[in-house]
Amino acid sequence: MSDSCLFCKISRDEVPSNKVYSDADTFAFRDINPQSPVHIIIIPKKHINALKLDDICQQDAALLGKIQIVAAKIASSFSEMKNGFRLVNNCGPDSGQTVYHIHYHLLGGRIFGWPPG
Ligand code: 5GP
Ligand code: ZN
User: How many folded domains does the chain comprise?
Assistant: First the structure.
């Protein structure tokens, strides 16, 4: 937990969000600036800076693996994602990461291009 972190505050309901899912160790909410018809941010409640070896440890393996399952669970509840979805983690400045609490973008409701921009 970090007192100054926006996503920690969102996960504690100290900053309002459009919540989609919550359990003991994960939280999901609508992105404020959606890039697709459905754009949900999934985070661990534990404050982890980014998906870099310096920031994660072996004990986080189950937690980070769980996020993949949470993403599939959320996607299965949206008709817009019945034909698929994209799950994205931006890590570090070159990727465009702006919030340094690890998070995964669950995007759906349109056809996505490859390679990504
Ligand atoms: P990043 O660029 O770090 O991968 O993603 C951060 C995401 O958080 C962006 O898509 C941005 O729109 C979203 N975001 C930033 N501030 C807020 C906020 O206060 N509320 C919500 N719901 N999303 C936010
Ligand atoms: Zn945080």
Answer: 1
To test ligand 1's pocket by mutation, which of 20, 31, 52, 94 has the most ligand atoms within 8 angstroms of CB? Answer: 31
Asked whether residue 115 is assigned to any structural domain, the reply reads no
Binding-site residues, ligand 1, Cβ < 6 A: 6, 17, 29-33, 41, 90, 96-99
Strand ranges, E, within the chain: 19-22, 26-30, 38-44, 86-88, 104-108
> Is 79 within the bounds of a domain?
yes
DSSP letter for 35, please.
S
pTM over cut 0.85: yes
66-93 tens-digit pLDDT: 999 999 999 999 999 999 999 999 999 9
